[in-house]
Amino acid sequence: MKNILLMFLVAGSLTITSCGRDGDPGAQGPVGPKGNANVKNWFLTTISTDWQTFGTPGNTNHSKYVTFSIPELTSTYVDYGMVLVYLNQNGFYTPLPITAPTGTNNVLFFNYVTIGNVEVDIQLSDLSTPNTNNANYDFKVVAVAGSVKLANPDLNWNDYKAVMQRLNLKD
Prior knowledge:
Blueprint: H1 2-18, E1 39-45, E2 52-54, E3 63-69, H2 75-78, E4 82-89, E5 92-95, E6 98-100, E7 107-114, E8 117-124, E9 138-144, H3 146-151, H4 160-166
Antiparallel strand pairs: 1-9, 2-3, 3-8, 4-5, 4-9, 6-7, 7-8
């Protein structure tokens, strides 16, 4: 019995005294790129075959639309933050909704956002069917958590370049 107790004491003291530092801590790693975990952005492109028709020509609900599936678009952004959709117009990104005058008939671009999806619609002011045969458009979607919006009350969210710069997003 004494031998067993002595063995436990020796084993315990060896365990306690044999633990020590293996060396000095390593050097600090390089600084990572700036970013914002509460902001996400996506670059989306449509081609003519992406557009679907909704409604009946002549009715106010008539439009062409495309739906982008974005699984990362969660309730953090949709319900508690904001989701911005910008259309590339000759190198300048304009926030939706917009009305683009084309002479006798205006083209309206607008969007709907749900969890996991962004839908972009094109409608003509005379309610005729939009021609999407050459409708290759580039969009940028920026999803912002509510905390980021509250932390930037002076930011003009309609100014794409200001948003990208302030939130450290890649263009």
